[in-house]
Design brief:
Number of helices: 5
Shape: globular
Order of helices and strands: EHHEEEHEHH
Strand order of the largest sheet: 1-2-3-4-5
CATH superfamily of the largest domain: Gcn5-related N-acetyltransferase (GNAT)
Largest sheet: 5 strands, mixed
């Protein structure tokens, strides 16, 4: 674990009010989790049942969200931690917080980037055998290892 603040020394909120979506967009860019425009983030976080934001010294250093229907299914997405704050358990803590808030749903799902399966297994997630997906850019998702065509065994 890197030096610096412990998980309990950060400021945590589940409230989307007051979130600067430009700052959130910069967090995703530096994490690096890609280009997520502020307006798009406002939409997806605004439509998520559960959200989580982590601050250090007033700066946004972690975030995540879960789409949920209130009973059957919750989907954890967009968990990001600023590189200067990685290695301190923040990502795990964001996921645990979202899982706890989604507790009571029949299933809690996320998709893992290739190579991160062991991390999520350590948080209680198990591999799904029958998950299927339709991606806007399936070729890119196959290339990155997120999707597999039946003939790509």
């Amino acid at each position: 674990m890197r030096g610096g603040a412990t998980v309990s020394e950060y400021a945590w909120t589940d409230d989307i009010d007051g979130v600067d979506f430009h700052e959130l967009s910069r967090l995703y860019a530096i994490a690096p989790l890609g280009d997520k425009p502020p307006a798009a983030l406002a939409t997806v976080f605004g439509n998520s049942m559960f959200t989580c934001f982590v601050r250090s010294g007033g700066a946004l250093v972690g975030a995540g969200r879960a789409l949920a229907d209130g009973l059957d299914c919750a989907y954890i997405a967009d968990v990001a931690v600023h590189p200067d704050h990685q290695g301190r358990g923040l990502g795990s803590a964001v996921i645990r917080r979202l899982v706890e808030r989604a507790r009571g749903h029949k299933k809690i799902i996320l998709y893992a980037a290739p190579g991160t399966e062991a991390f999520y297994r350590g948080l209680g997630f198990l591999r799904m055998n029958t998950a299927m997906a339709i991606w806007r850019d399936p070729d890119r998702a196959v290339e990155s290892g997120l999707l597999r065509r039946d003939d790509d065994r």
